[in-house]
Amino acid sequence: MAALYALISLLSWRRLTINSWDNAIFEQAIKAYSRLEAPIVPVKGPGFNILGDHFSPIDALIAPFYRVFPDGRTLLVAQAVLFGASVVPITRLAVERLGARTGWTIAVMYGSSFGLAQAAIVDFHEVAFAVPILAMAGAAFVEERYRAVMLWSSALILVKEDMGVTVAAIGVALWLARERRRGLILALVGAVALVLVVWVIIPAFNAGGAYDYTENLGGEAGLWQSLVTEWDRKLATLALTFAVTGFAALWSPWAVVAAPTFVWRFLGDVHWYWGTEWHYSVVLMPIVFVAMIQALERRPRLEWPAVVVGAAVGGYLLAGGPIVALAETETWQAPPHREAMREAIDLIAEDAVVEADISVLKYLTGSHDEVYWVGTIGDVVPDYIVVDRRLTGFDPADHGAQEHGGDYRVVFDRDGYVVARRVG
Question: Are 125 and 50 contacting, i.e. CB atoms less than 8 angstroms apart?
C-alpha cells in the first residue's frame, strides 16, 4: 500500500496538480529541522515559526531523510510509508481475530479506504503520523494491552494540537473498557496537553501571541449555526465513514475515539472540513476499522453483512477516486506546460528571494530557501517573482513595481509561466 500511495502522490506532483500551499509549508519546516534550525516557514510570512501555527514537532522525524533527499517529493513518500505502516497492525489484528478470509478482506478495505486515498492525492499533511499511531493504539486496545494504548496515544500529542482531544477520547474508550484508572489518567493527559499547547506553547511562538484558528469554530455565525450549515453534507460524511465498516464499528467502544474529529470538523466554518475530500478523514480510517474488527469478534453474526456492506460502500467510493484513476491514461501523462515551469524555476538563482503564486510554491521550496507566497510576503522585497498567469491573471513586473516599489523586468514568459527579475 505504501508503494501504491507513493505512486498516487508522485503522479499528482508530476501532473502539476494544484492542491494548496501545504506541501511547501511542511517542506520549509522540515528543511529547517534537517539543518537543526528553528522551523521558520517564509511561505507563511517573514520569520514565521510554524510552531506558532500548528504544533507538529513530530514532523522533525522526516528531517534525516530530507537531509539525504532534499526534495518536496520526500514528504510524499514519507506520507505513503506512514499509511502503509498502518496497514500492518490492522491486517495482523484482523487475521488473528477473524481468520484469514475475513481478515485479509478487511485489510484490503482499509488499505483502499477513501480517507487514505483522498489524503494521498492532496500532498503531505502532518496528520499522516497519526494514522499508524492510531492503528497501533487501536490494536493494543482490542488486545487489552492497555499500557501500550497509553504509550501510543501519548505520542499523538506531538502530531497536532487538536490530537489532545483525541487522546482524551481514548481515555474515555479505556473507561468504557473498565480500565477506569488508566482511562481517567489518559483523559486528563489529553485535556492538559490541549490547554498547554493551544493556550501556552503555540501563542509563545506566534507573533500575535494567540492561537489563530479559534475563530474557525463557528466563526461569526456561531457554533449552532455552523453545526446545522450543510447538515446533509455533514450527515453523509458521518454515515459514509461508518458505512465503510458496514456500520459494525458502532458496536465497539473504540468508535468513541472518532468523536472529537467529527465535532471540530462539523463545528468549523471551513467548507472543506465537512465532506469526504481532502485529508480530513484520514485519522478516522484506522479508528473505525479497528472498531469494526473488535465488533465483529464480539458479534460474529454481524461479520457477513458488515463485510458485504462495507466492501460495497468502499467500492462505490473508489469510483472516480485516485486509485481507480491509475487506470486512466491521463493520470500518467505530464502536462505540456511542465517543461516551461521547470525552465522558469531554473532561471532563478538558488540564493534569491522569491515571491510565487500557489501553483509553483511547492516546486520551488526544495531548491530555494527563501520562498514567499504573494499573499504573505509582507515588506520583504523579492529578487524574482514567478507566477502562472493563467491562475493569477496579473503581470509579475507590474505587481513588483506596485507592491515593492522596484523596477522588475520579465525574463521568461512561456506557456503561462512568467518570471520577473528585479533590476533596480
Answer: no
Tens place of pLDDT per residue across the chain (424 aa): 899 999 999 999 999 998 889 999 999 999 999 999 999 999 999 999 999 999 999 999 999 999 999 999 999 999 999 999 999 999 999 999 999 999 999 999 999 999 999 999 999 999 999 999 999 999 999 999 999 999 999 999 999 999 999 999 999 999 999 999 999 999 999 999 999 999 999 999 999 999 988 777 665 566 667 777 888 999 999 999 999 999 999 999 999 999 999 999 998 888 889 999 999 999 999 999 999 999 999 999 999 999 999 999 999 999 989 999 999 999 999 999 999 999 999 999 999 999 999 999 999 999 999 999 998 999 999 999 999 998 888 899 999 999 998 899 999 999 999 999 999 7
CA distance 362 to 10: 13
In a domain? residue 123: yes
Look at residues 294, 327, 360 and tell me which one is the last residue of a structural domain.
Answer: 327
The DSSP H or E segment spanning 371 is strand 370-373
295, three cell numbers? 465488533
In a domain, 287, yes or no: yes
The CA distance from 385 to 190, in Å, is 44
406 HSE (CA, 13 A, CB side)? 19
3-state helix, strand, coil in the chain (%, to 5): 65, 5, 30
The answer to pTM > 0.90 is yes
Identify each DSSP E strand in 301-341 by its residue range: none
| CA distance linking residue 321 with residue 119, whole number of Å | 11
C-alpha cell at 353: 528571494
Phi, psi (deg, nearest 5) at residue 216: -70, -20
Would strands 417-422 and 384-388 be described as parallel, antiparallel, or unpaired?
Answer: antiparallel
Q: How far is CA 131 from the centre of its chain?
A: 10
Q: Are residues 132 and 263 in the same domain?
A: yes
